[in-house]
Write a structure and sequence with these properties.
The protein is mostly helical. The chain has a single domain (3-406), classed as Sodium/glucose cotransporter (Up-down Bundle), CATH 1.20.1730. It has helices spanning 3-27, 33-38, 45-57, 64-72, 74-105, 112-120, 126-158, 162-210, 214-223, 246-253, 263-271, 278-309, 321-329, 334-374, 382-402, 410-424, 426-434, 440-459, 473-490, 496-507, and strands spanning 232-234, 241-243. It has a two-stranded antiparallel sheet with strand order 1-2. α4 (64-72) packs antiparallel against α5.
Length: 508
């Protein structure tokens, strides 16, 4: 192992130990299941904003987005980023405040399945059970993809066994989340967002310098057919350009719809100390998301310029662009190697910040929603926290088992899970918050139709190709929305009590 590699390992080790320290610090603050899963609704506006966005971005921000831009230019990366940025802003603007208020009114709901049940006074517990099962179905493999990404990162950097690297990464995530619960996950997310920001800034600055300056970067980009266009995409193999259809653009923009149904993001809205502080959270979150995604895309453009200038070889795997740039930085001395370690810790942070939130959401669905509230197990006080922690360990073990294959596609799993939550929960959340006439039958129909349509479209209709080969989230979201409206109108209207609480929430 070289000196540079040793220093990088040291930087990453310090980062991992710090994350464990946060878990230990917050462990003593979890006196109830409400503390463990929602932090007692005591999050400040800045922590709320940054933890929500850090848990959202995952390694896709530091690997997927610049990788796409490196190969094909701005079109695909930019339209995806625009959809996500708009979705982020609208989620904070129209959902956050009312969800915080409504979950408090609806019997102090601390999980999304509990909110669905309490919103519609569903005494059959069908809404809670089905939504909890869907969270497990989509989140366990989602968490596994995070474990896998960490394993691939360490294995590629240090030539270690994938399995060993994956298990060590998973163990760290599990330990600090099991010990510290929601507060630990939220504050580690804050730290991780800062590390991600530093990584983006350093990589961009170094890359521009190595490419010969900003003018050289832009001259190279302009010389590539369709590279800087939003209606064309560059073909790295042929050197030509191909058109980007309106349907494809709409499909990419649909990624933004997923935000309305993401349990690990919506939990942040529910946990803020005061709803009036959400305005500040919205501004902080939106600015960070727009800037970070913009920088990530431009890093891809800069990386292509570095290849052109001979500063970096043509990448076999474009998603490793930041890893490769960090490796180049490490050759410039001890301090540079330390900075490279921080950059790589940033990639690790991006993955961990998502995985911890997902484990927490999946654990709450099993222990709180299924075991306690659906099956009526008598678990109270400190015992409920023990059960919550035990459940999280079991979920992590299942996720680690699913992540054992190093050749699994991280992006494919993430994309599918994002569509699943967006379609199954997104319309239910929106109609539940804003449509007085919606009822439990409509919500149940929307949830089932949305979740089922994701599978049907992905593995059935989309295989027909052509206009049908669009991102499954868009048609599934539309189908779920139609199902909610139709079924709600065909069945009995909500009770007076449900309408009264809806009016109270709306009128406050």
């Amino acid at each position: 192992m070289t000196t540079a590699q040793l220093i990088i390992c040291l930087a990453i080790a310090v980062y991992l130990i710090a994350m464990l320290g946060v878990g230990v610090w917050f462990a003593k603050k979890n006196n109830s299941v409400d503390d463990f899963y929602l932090g007692g609704r005591k999050l400040g506006p800045f922590v709320t904003a940054m933890s929500a966005e850090a848990s959202d971005m995952s390694s896709w921000l530091l690997m997927g987005l610049p990788g796409v831009a490196y190969l094909s230019g701005l079109a695909e990366a930019s339209w995806t980023a625009i959809g996500l940025a708009v979705g982020t802003y609208l989620n904070w603007l129209i959902v956050a405040k009312r969800l915080r208020r409504y979950t408090h009114k609806a019997n102090n709901s601390i999980t999304l399945p509990a909110f669905f049940e309490n919103r519609y006074r569903d005494k059959s517990h069908a809404l809670m059970a089905i939504s909890a099962i869907m969270i497990v179905i989509f989140f366990v493999p989602y968490t596994a993809s995070g474990f896998s990404a960490c394993g691939k990162l360490f294995a590629s950097l240090f030539g270690t066994s994938y399995m060993t690297a994956m298990l060590i990464s998973a163990a760290v995530i599990v330990i600090y989340t099991v010990m510290g619960g929601f507060l630990a996950a939220s504050f580690t997310d804050l730290i991780q967002s800062i590390i991600m920001t530093v990584a983006l800034i350093v990589v961009l600055s170094f890359g521009v310098a190595q490419a010969g300056g900003l003018d050289a970067v832009m001259d190279n980009a302009q010389s590539l057919a369709g590279y800087l266009s939003l209606t064309q995409t560059h073909d790295a193999v042929t050197g030509g350009a191909s058109s980007y259809s309106l349907l494809t653009i709409c499909s990419l923009l649909a990624w933004g719809l997923g935000y309305f149904g993401m349990p690990h993001i919506l939990l942040r809205f529910m946990a803020i100390e005061e709803e009036k502080k959400l305005a500040l959270s919205r501004r902080v979150a939106t600015v960070w998301v727009v800037i970070s995604m913009g920088v990530a895309i431009f890093i891809g453009v800069v990386g292509n310029g570095m290849t052109k200038a001979g500063a970096m070889e043509q990448l076999a795997d474009s998603e490793t662009i930041i890893v490769q740039i960090a490796s180049l930085i490490s050759h410039y001395g001890v301090f540079a190697a330390l900075i490279a370690g921080v950059i790589l810790a940033g990639i690790l942070a991006a993955t961990m910040s998502t995985a911890d939130s997902q484990m927490l959401a999946a654990s709450s669905s099993v222990s709180q929603n299924l075991l306690v509230e659906f099956f009526h197990l008598k678990i109270t006080g400190r015992k409920s926290v023990v059960v919550a922690r035990s459940t999280m360990v079991v979920i992590a073990l299942v996720a680690a088992f699913l992540a054992r294959d190093p050749n699994s596609s991280v992006f494919r799993v993430v994309s599918f899970a994002w569509a699943g939550f967006g379609a199954a929960f997104g319309p239910v959340v929106l109609f539940g918050l804003f449509w007085r006439r919606s009822n439990k039958w409509g919500a149940l129909a929307g949830m089932v139709v949305g979740g089922a349509m994701v599978f049907i479209w992905k593995y059935g209709i989309a295989t027909l190709g052509g206009a049908f080969a669009i991102y499954e989230l868009l048609p599934a979201f539309i189908a779920a929305s139609i199902a909610i409206v139709v079924v709600s109108l065909l069945t009995e209207k909500p009770s007076g009590e449900i309408e009264r609480i809806f009016d109270e929430v709306r009128g406050v």
